[in-house]
């Protein structure tokens, strides 16, 4: 199994990524996306509904598995060319983080649990990824098993 990640973006941006089958992180930078590998699992946390807004969401808004394609630039017009990575998004419902805080490895017993979120992308344990998926009502596909001859 690959690694697990939490990415951070406003809910409206995450919904666009879900609809288009991609993810962007850290204002479109390529380097963070290169840390993620095909088969890695990613969940998005959205602190707000809109970028720069004060309209709190504080929810996990998407969860999926990174596809094989490498990060690629995408021209959004107006001179903004962020890097994207393709993701197979799972079916699931947006879920508030608050009820999970005392059970997630990255936040349990941590007073300032939101500090890590400022980085825009960070690795989490299998336990955290599984707990988030369960809370969202999503099911990760079983990892491919090697064929023994």
From TrEMBL:
It holds the Pfam family EVE. InterPro entries: EVE_domain, PUA-like_sf, UPF0310. Residues 4-134 form the EVE domain. SUPFAM superfamilies: PUA domain-like. Belongs to the UPF0310 family. This is UPF0310 protein D3877_15210.
């Amino acid at each position: 199994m690959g690694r697990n990640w939490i990415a951070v973006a406003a809910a409206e941006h995450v919904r666009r990524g879900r609809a288009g089958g991609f993810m962007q992180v850290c204002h479109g930078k390529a380097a963070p996306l290169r840390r993620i590998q095909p088969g890695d699992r990613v969940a998005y946390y959205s602190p707000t509904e809109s970028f720069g807004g004060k309209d709190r969401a504080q929810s996990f808004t998407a969860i999926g598995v990174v596809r094989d394609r490498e990060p690629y630039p995408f021209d959004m017009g107006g001179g903004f060319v962020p890097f994207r990575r393709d993701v197979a998004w799972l079916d699931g419902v947006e879920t508030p983080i608050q009820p999970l805080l005392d059970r997630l490895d990255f936040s349990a017993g941590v007073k300032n649990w939101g500090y890590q979120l400022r980085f825009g992308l960070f690795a989490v344990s299998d336990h955290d990824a599984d707990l988030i998926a369960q809370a969202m009502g999503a099911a990760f596909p079983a990892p491919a098993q090697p064929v023994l001859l």
